[in-house]
Every structure is written in C-alpha cells, then in structure tokens.
Design goal:
The chain is an alpha+beta fold and 108 residues long. Helix content is 39%, strand content 14%.
C-alpha cells in the first residue's frame, strides 16, 4: 500500500551519501532515481514489485540454477495474491543486520 511509504516516511532514517551512491543512481531509470532522492529507495510506489533476497550476488549461471531449484517449491506459494496484514518496523544494527522492533497489524 502506497500510504505505508508516504505516511510513514518521516520516521525513516535519512539516506546517507554512501547509501545513495551504493544504489548507483546514474544507472537507474529517471523515476527510480527520483524515488531514491525523495523516498530513500528507488523501487517504491508504482515501481515496487514484491521480492525477497535469497542470496548475495551470483554469476548469471548460478542465479539461473538457484531460480530453477526454487521454482517448483515456490510456485504454489506465489500462485495467488498474498494479503498483507501487518507492517514490521525493523532496525539495522552497526553490522548491517536487520532486527524486528515491532510487528504492527494493519486495519481498515
């Protein structure tokens, strides 16, 4: 839901210059770069597609092998839309690991 981005934006930490550069803004499409500058992440609102990071960077052949290995097990899970019933507030520690602070149910 877009309101989770727009209405909660005031609570996010500001994007540091290092984080901005890590997103390679010069390689982003115009709208994604504008989102990065405004919202702190390039793929929000109309550019967002649900995704999970399952590995670090992989060469193309290994990425395809991983995708193929996971496809049959994940297909039933992603065959239909999944309702979003809560929003998690996460915190990042100094080592770059995220930790759950609070899981809040969505209402309405």
């Amino acid at each position: 839901e877009s309101s989770l981005v727009t209405r909660l934006d005031e609570f996010r930490a500001p994007l540091t210059p290092q984080e901005y550069e890590r997103r390679r803004p010069d390689a982003l499409p115009d709208q994604a770069r504008r989102h990065l500058e405004h919202w702190g992440y390039p793929f929000v609102l109309e550019l967002f597609h649900y995704h999970l990071t399952l590995s670090g960077p992989l060469p193309p052949a290994r990425a395809e092998a991983l995708r193929d290995a996971l496809a049959s097990g994940l297909a039933p899970l992603i065959a239909e839309p999944m309702p979003v019933t809560s929003a998690a507030l996460m915190g990042e520690d100094e080592d770059g690991f995220f930790h759950l602070i609070e899981d809040m149910p969505l209402r309405g």
